[in-house]
Write a structure and sequence with these properties.
Elements lengths: L1 E8 L2 E6 L2 E8 L3 H11 L4 E5 H5 L6 H10 L4 E4 L5 H10 L3 E4 L1 H5 L1 H11 L4 E10 L2 E6 L4 E6 H8 L6 E6 L11 H10 L4 E5 L5 H9 L4 E4 L1 H4 L5 H10 L1
Parallel strand pairs: 1-4, 1-12, 4-5, 5-6, 6-7, 7-10, 10-11, 11-12
Antiparallel strand pairs: 1-2, 2-3, 7-8, 8-9
Helix pairs in contact: 9-11
Length: 244
Amino acid sequence: MLIPAIDLINGKVVRLKQGDFAKKTEFAFDPAERIAAAAAAGAQLLHIVDLDGAKNPARRQLTLLKKLALHCTLPLQVGGGIRTEDDVQALLNLGISRAVVGSAAIKDPAFGLLLLRKYGAEHITLALDVNIVNGTPYAAVQGWQEQSSQNLHDLLQIFVPAGLLHVLITDISKDGMLQGPNTAMYAALMQEYPQLDVIASGGISSLDDLRALRQAKVPSAVLGRALLEGRFSLQEALACWQNA
């Protein structure tokens, strides 16, 4: 599945480079219109990052998210500063299909396991943002400001036996850079965890990147900056994905 993505600050569609708020690009797109266009093009899910909520959960854009969930036909996957069970419940109550949980579950795996057990794997996406250190992907937390001592495989060994289904994995060095994804990392993951819906995120800049991910048997990918900048259309991407 290809998943178009929009990042939101104060209701505006933006993109950051490597998670840096100082490297922000704002786009003149209405979020609801963007989602409607994605649905019309054939998307099955849309990924939203609430960057206000990521900075401060008290500023989560709940009113906007509720409007989008009510009036858009696409299921929504939403992340950004989700740190408590109440945060997850609030999103699901709005009609959000999947809550994306990252730092909170990495720092406290028991919390992540509780969410999977209580809400079901279909409604929880685990976000693992990684830095590559000597060839090993280590998780980063708190908006990529802190490096965890746990590597990607250690974390998956905790959550996969509990039924984890959706895992969004971002190589931080690739995010927003339009220099291609870390295809080798995803290929290795799919060999080890063929049952997972691994969602590749970061660096996708061309249809060739999508072909490479498909050849690596990656089930899903997020499309962000490349779509916003018109490097290819969603229709072109979906056709490429289906035929690769």
